[in-house]
């Protein structure tokens, strides 16, 4: 931009004016662009207070120069004053700039000033974009031959060089801060940046190329100006509308898939929960931070605590002290070694023995346990007199046995012989091993030998043949009895039928596998859902950006035709056709905005500004805004809102929801009575706590019961032929209500009207 401006000054110096009929950059424009270029250079990385002050001064000078030019033109236009002696003569340094150039310089100076001031930096992009529009408008004038935009005339013209320089500095301001705004998206390596870099050139050049081709064909007398404009406008409508329809179908497909995934996830979770609630063992799950994430009914009973006192809390917070230390070591072992840990533990505070199996999971631990206190007490009362011991041994369900210090079996309880169908002589010594399952014999012999050699307690699970020939799983346990010298004098052992436990363990293993598969599937579906939602959000953001530009260009072209530019006043039918085109364009742009708003709401990305709000005053303001539309359809509109009803919320979003509800009432309940009311501390809110209700009640036709849930679904209209619209207004409104911490509900009776209620939390404000 600086090079172009310097070249223009040199040319002015040598030629002392422009050739007749030629539009070139004048000295004031060149000076303003030099100042703007210098200010942009000084707005780069920090260069010290002096450089910052100098850049700000250059930016203010640019804005002041542009403002003087614009004001001067306005004064001449208003009063018909002749050109001033200073700006009107033809000295190389004093030729007057055009109003377009003056506006561009003013916007550039304003954007550069905002860029230099941290508090105003957010406005730099908007004013720079406006300056870029001015430059592009001048270039469009040159390309299309619109003399009102560039040629010499009483207002002066904007040269191509001036427009290019203004556009260059504008782009520089837009890209000055690569961490925010358009620059952040354009320079990013993500899908948004790549999509923008691919589509932006085509989006900017396609309307210019289409317009130039239409203009060239018109100049070649292939068709007249009106037909050329119509071809251009129709092309710029058909292409975006086709793209809109395509994207809307994609959005609908995304929604359908998302709902299917959610339903499948809910079903999988419900199945896993039913399984865990139906098993006889107590079960709970913990995450990696030892917090309870699930507790079944049996665990509630054994732990003597309801779920709501366990879920989300640390195991060591609920069960503190030394009594839980042994549990901690076993849990940590399972977590660290990533393998199943089985142990029995006494818990002193409850005077209870428990048998636990701990399974490591990807996100924590699953623990199955049951009460074995009765068994443990029975075993302890066996270290009593032999008479009582033998009597007890014959009564308890376990099989009791004893051996000498060498392992020779000398005693089995009566139940053992009943179970095996043998006699004492057949199982004494090592005769009992003949009743073992063949697959368990070597393992049992090695374990028993190790216990005899080391004196360690003997624990094993094995199968014995019953008298009918079938095998049953038993838990074998034995401890040594020592004399005062520490020598083993006898071994005391038990056989506990664990066939039911084994069956349950197999069932638990199967359920655990099924749970793991269900968790993995739920995680996959959750990830797929997040991917689909994010993909939809990215699609809608790119879609909105890509489609709005050509629609806005088309609307500008239609506006020019409507106002007789550049081909003169249109006939009545032609003008009506152009008006219909502009209405269609505005409808398409509104549809794009609604789709983008819906995408943001679904992704939870709507901007909320929560402030203390007088909802009564807000209700009256919204009602007054709709007086005219309501009167046009003979609707009686009234507000019932007490003064001083305060709530912390986003007033702009509340206005949006109420405006949508009143707009629907105007469309679908003309001639009815509509009441907008605010009720603090209203009963019947969507949850516990204090609620404020904002209701819109009409006396229109009402909605049938089987259609009430449909009105909140996207792209659903109960009467598609009645009024135009995309059918997503109520869906957006409900999402806004839920983002604010409340809800949007409907009550209706056919023939007696509808009542939509916006619930807002009165205390927290969302």
Written description of the protein model:
The chain is an alpha+beta fold. It is built from 25 helices and 17 strands. Strands 2-1-5-4-3 form a 5-stranded antiparallel sheet. Helix 11 (225-278) packs parallel to helix 21. It starts with a helix and ends in a 5-residue tail after the last strand.
Termini Cα gap: 50 Å
- Beta fraction of the residues? 15-25%
User: How would you describe the shape?
Assistant: elongated
Determine the number of helices (DSSP H or I, runs of at least 4 residues).
25
- Poorly predicted runs: 17-21, 83-94
List keywords for this structure.
single chain; 766 residues; alpha+beta; five-stranded antiparallel sheet; 17 strands
Topology:
Elements: H1 2-15, H2 27-42, H3 49-79, H4 85-88, H5 99-116, H6 124-144, H7 147-150, H8 160-174, H9 181-187, H10 191-219, H11 225-278, E1 282-287, E2 292-295, H12 297-303, H13 315-318, H14 325-337, E3 341-347, E4 352-361, E5 364-371, H15 373-380, H16 386-395, E6 399-403, E7 409-412, H17 414-420, H18 424-427, H19 441-454, E8 458-465, E9 471-482, E10 488-497, H20 499-562, H21 572-602, E11 611-614, H22 615-625, H23 627-632, E12 636-640, E13 646-649, H24 651-668, E14 673-679, E15 691-697, H25 729-739, E16 743-749, E17 753-761
Parallel strand pairs: 12-14
Antiparallel strand pairs: 1-2, 1-5, 3-4, 4-5, 6-7, 6-10, 8-9, 9-10, 11-13, 14-15, 15-17, 16-17
Helix pairs in contact: 1-2, 2-3, 2-5, 2-8, 3-5, 5-6, 5-8, 6-8, 9-10, 10-11, 10-20, 11-20, 11-21, 20-21, 21-25, 22-24, 24-25
């Amino acid at each position: 931009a600086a090079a172009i401006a310097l070249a223009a000054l040199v040319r002015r110096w040598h030629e002392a004016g422009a050739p007749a009929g030629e539009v070139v950059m004048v000295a004031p424009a060149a000076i303003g662009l030099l100042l703007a270029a210098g200010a942009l250079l000084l707005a780069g990385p920090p260069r010290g207070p002096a450089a910052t002050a100098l850049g700000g001064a250059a930016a203010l000078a640019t804005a002041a120069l542009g403002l003087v030019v614009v004001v001067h033109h306005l004064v001449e236009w208003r009063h018909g004053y002749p050109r001033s002696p200073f700006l009107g003569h033809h000295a190389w340094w004093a030729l007057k700039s055009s109003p377009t150039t003056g506006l561009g310089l003013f916007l550039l100076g304003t954007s550069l000033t905002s860029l230099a001031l941290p508090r105003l930096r957010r406005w730099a992009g908007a004013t720079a974009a406006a300056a870029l529009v001015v430059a592009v408008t001048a270039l469009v004038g040159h390309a299309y031959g619109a003399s009102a935009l560039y040629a010499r005339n009483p207002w002066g013209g904007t040269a191509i060089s001036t427009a290019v320089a203004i556009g260059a500095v504008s782009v520089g301001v837009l890209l000055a801060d690569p961490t925010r705004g358009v620059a952040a998206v354009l320079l990013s390596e993500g899908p948004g940046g790549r999509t923008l870099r691919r589509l932006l050139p085509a989006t900017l050049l396609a309307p210019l190329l289409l317009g130039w081709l239409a203009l060239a064909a018109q100049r070649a007398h292939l068709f007249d100006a009106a037909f050329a404009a119509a071809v251009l406008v129709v092309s710029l409508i058909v292409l975006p509308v086709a793209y809109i329809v395509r994207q809307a179908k994609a959005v609908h497909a995304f929604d359908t898939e998302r709902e299917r995934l959610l339903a499948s996830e809910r079903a999988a979770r419900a199945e896993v929960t039913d399984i865990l609630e139906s098993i006889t063992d107590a079960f709970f799950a913990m995450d990696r931070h030892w917090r309870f994430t699930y507790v079944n009914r049996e665990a509630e009973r054994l732990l003597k605590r309801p779920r709501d006192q366990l879920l989300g809390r640390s195991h060591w917070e609920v069960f503190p002290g030394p009594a839980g230390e042994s549990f901690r070591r076993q849990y940590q072992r399972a977590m660290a070694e990533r393998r199943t840990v089985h142990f029995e533990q006494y818990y002193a505070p409850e005077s209870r023995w428990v048998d636990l199996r701990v399974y490591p999971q990807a996100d924590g631990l699953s623990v199955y346990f049951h009460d074995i206190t009765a068994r443990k007490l029975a075993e302890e009362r066996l270290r009593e007199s032999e008479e009582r011991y033998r009597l007890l041994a014959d009564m308890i369900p376990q099989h009791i046995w004893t051996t000498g210090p060498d392992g020779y079996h000398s005693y089995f309880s009566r139940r053992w012989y009943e179970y095996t169908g043998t006699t004492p002589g057949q199982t004494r010594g090592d005769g009992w091993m003949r009743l073992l399952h063949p697959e368990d014999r070597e393992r049992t012999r090695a374990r028993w030998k190790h216990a005899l050699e080391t004196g360690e307690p003997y624990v094993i699970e094995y199968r014995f043949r019953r008298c009918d020939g079938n095998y049953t799983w038993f838990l074998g346990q034995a401890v040594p009895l020592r004399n005062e010298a520490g020598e083993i004098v006898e071994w005391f052992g038990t056989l506990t039928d664990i066939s039911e436990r084994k069956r349950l363990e197999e069932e638990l293993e199967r359920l655990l596998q099924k749970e793991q598969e269900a968790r993995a599937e739920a995680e996959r579906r959750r990830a797929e859902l997040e991917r689909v939602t994010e993909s939809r959000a990215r699609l809608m953001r790119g879609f909105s950006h890509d489609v709005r530009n050509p629609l806005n260009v088309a609307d500008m072209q239609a506006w020019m035709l409507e106002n007789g530019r550049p081909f003169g006043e249109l006939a009545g039918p032609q003008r009506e056709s152009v008006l219909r085109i502009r209405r269609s364009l505005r409808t398409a742009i509104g549809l794009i905005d609604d789709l983008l708003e819906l995408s943001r709401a679904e992704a939870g990305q709507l901007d909320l500004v929560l402030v203390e709000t007088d909802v009564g005053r807000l209700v009256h303001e919204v009602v007054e805004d709709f007086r005219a539309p309501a009167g046009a359809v003979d609707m009686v509109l009234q507000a019932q809102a007490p003064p001083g009803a305060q709530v912390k919320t986003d007033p702009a979003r509340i206005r949006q929801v109420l405006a949508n509800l009143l707009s629907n009432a105007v469309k679908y309940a003309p001639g009815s009575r509509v009441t907008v009311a605010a009720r603090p501390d209203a009963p019947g809110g969507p949850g516990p706590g204090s609620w404020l209700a904002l209701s819109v009640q009409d006396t229109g036709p009402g909605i049938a019961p089987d259609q009430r849930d449909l009105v909140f679904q996207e792209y659903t209209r109960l009467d598609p032929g009645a009024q135009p619209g995309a059918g997503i207004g109520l869906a957006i409104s409900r999402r806004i209500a839920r983002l604010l911490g409340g809800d949007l509900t409907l009550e209706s009776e056919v023939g007696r009207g509808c009542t939509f209620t916006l619930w807002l939390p009165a205390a927290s404000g969302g």
